[in-house]
Design a protein that fits this description.
Elements (H helix, E strand, L loop, with lengths): L1 E7 L3 H16 L6 E4 L7 H5 L8 E2 L3 H4 L7 H10 L2 H10 L4 E4 L3 E4 L4 H14 L3 E3 L4 E7 L2 E6 L4 E9 L14 H8 L4 E7 L3 E3 L8 E2 L5 E2 L7 H6 L3 E11 L2 E12 L4 E2 H16 L4 E6 L6 H17 L8 H10 L7 H7 L4 E5 L5 E5 L1 H9 L1 E8 L7 E6 L4 E2 L4 E2 L5 E3 L13 H20 L8
Parallel strand pairs: 1-2, 1-9, 2-6, 9-24
Antiparallel strand pairs: 3-5, 4-5, 7-8, 8-9, 10-21, 11-20, 12-13, 14-15, 14-17, 15-16, 17-20, 18-19, 22-23
């Protein structure tokens, strides 16, 4: 089987690369065959689960703001971004009939909030310019000679092409087909691959799981499926809005974020948790101690919080409805005035010092509610981090094919002519909020256009 350009991987970057290559060829009057080889039964499997199935497919910030959300190698992405900006991506989908909506934080979604619309639009766009998409076609080996590239597939078929685009993604969500094949092929061709680790993933507090269940295949990996402890069950499902979170590495503050935090069956997630997870995971892998501190009352000084806690306690204690209630019951009423009700069990379980038992005799026990401690915990609720959820549920893979090995203005390998990379397989990752998919689209489009341009003056495939 032959094609002029083969794209391995039918995800976001691969489909955009294929479309861009075929579109550029058609615009320049070239008869090029572009083929996508996808190992899964359908393309775009990871897109389908993006944003819990709603698919935040880009972020429409301009480059100056957008680049601040790229965790590494922002300068490498600049050419690709300007080649296909986030506004261009919005126009692309709308031009193929997909209505879009832009929400808070400049996040763009399909108006239907169905990720399948994003996949269907990409596939339709590819078909409109003659791209062939071969599914259930898993590439097992590849090699290069002076005529181009030869690929062998597990179904027994073999393929040849003049230019090859590797868009195989990372290791995240392996059930979608992302199993790291591109890293292996890059290494076999002498191309450097930087160390890999999960990013945008759940951080697991100490004691959150019934046991910390470290899996030896990856440092500090705690499987998401391991059972929750009592504390984990008390916190799981709680969502916090507008909180401040500080990241500590070896007791030194290493980052801070403001926004929303979710406690899930994996651990601490949500936009803020994800943004801090990259540094946290890297520190854990390097053997450092990691902790998070949640400030539930950001912007309010500790002294003011303490005064407010004491004031509310006086109100609760003097309320006629409190007559006959135990101190613990009154404490729960107090906490209900300071936080969401569903947070109280987890908050009290992780901060046992807010209630003190004083035994004066065998039958005489006094319960003390430590109001200053409650205020302090509201401002500095600490979690030592025992581990992380691994690639099984990490949003992206950090690390990958070194950007030093890739020409940023074309996405072509510096050492292997005719070989291009795009998307998550490269050592480029970003915050949650549409930034990673936009980077996938931008680098994919540039790789596809560059591959087509490079074949302009060459003889067509036989």
């Amino acid at each position: 089987m032959r094609a002029d350009i083969i794209v391995i991987g039918g995800g976001a970057s691969g489909l955009m690369a294929a479309y861009a290559a075929a579109r550029r060829a058609a615009d320049q009057g070239m008869a090029l065959q572009v083929t996508v080889l996808e190992k899964m039964p359908r393309p775009g499997r990871k897109i389908m689960i993006t944003g819990k199935g709603r698919c935040n497919f880009t972020n429409v910030k301009d480059w100056n703001e957008f680049s601040q959300h790229i965790s590494s190698k922002a300068s490498f992405v600049k050419s690709a971004f300007h080649n296909l900006t986030s506004r261009d991506v919005l126009d692309f989908f709308e031009s193929f009939g997909m209505k879009t909506v832009v929400e808070r934080g400049d996040r763009a979604f399909p108006a239907s909030y169905h990720a399948s619309d994003v996949v269907d639009t990409l596939v339709s766009a590819c078909h409109s310019v003659g791209v062939k998409i071969e599914t259930e076609c898993e590439v097992s080996t590849l090699s290069r000679d002076n005529k181009g590239f030869s690929l062998s597939c597990t179904d027994g078929r073999s393929w040849n092409c003049r230019s090859l685009i590797i868009a195989t993604g990372g290791l995240s969500y392996p059930g979608t087909g992302s199993t790291g094949d591109g890293y292996r092929w890059a290494g076999e061709m002498g191309i450097k691959v930087t160390p890999l680790f999960p990013s945008l993933t759940a951080l697991v507090p100490a004691g959150y799981k019934a046991d910390d269940g470290i899996i030896s295949s990856f440092p500090h990996h705690i499987d998401r499926q391991s059972p929750l402890s009592g504390i984990g069950e008390a916190l799981c499902g709680v969502q916090l809005k507008n909180v401040a979170v500080q990241l500590y590495i070896d007791t030194m503050e290493a980052g801070n974020e403001f926004g929303d935090v979710d406690f899930t069956d994996g651990g601490i997630e949500g936009p803020v948790g994800f943004r801090l997870s990259r540094k946290a995971v890297k520190a854990l892998v390097n053997g450092s101690k990691v902790a998070l501190s949640l400030d539930l009352k950001p912007g309010v000084p500790l002294a003011d919080v303490t005064a407010r806690v004491k004031e509310l306690w006086t109100e609760v204690d003097k309320d006629p409805r409190s007559r006959g209630l135990r101190e613990k019951e009154k404490c729960r009423i107090l906490l209900g005035k300071l936080m969401p009700w569903d947070l109280i069990p987890g908050f009290t379980a992780t901060n046992p010092d807010i209630i003190t038992l004083e035994r004066k005799g065998r039958q005489d026990t006094k319960v003390w509610i430590n109001l200053p401690t409650i205020a302090k915990c509201l401002k500095d609720w600490k979690f030592d981090i025992a581990g992380l959820v691994g690639y099984e549920r990490a949003v992206v893979t950090a690390g990958g094919v070194s950007t030093d090995e890739i020409i940023p203005k074309s996405m072509e390998s510096r050492t292997v002519p005719g070989l291009y990379f795009c998307g998550e397989v490269m050592d480029v990752d970003s915050d949650t909020g549409g930034y990673n998919l936009q980077t996938a689209f931008s680098t994919g489009a540039l790789a596809g256009r560059s591959a087509a341009d490079a074949l302009k003056d060459q003889s067509p495939a036989e």
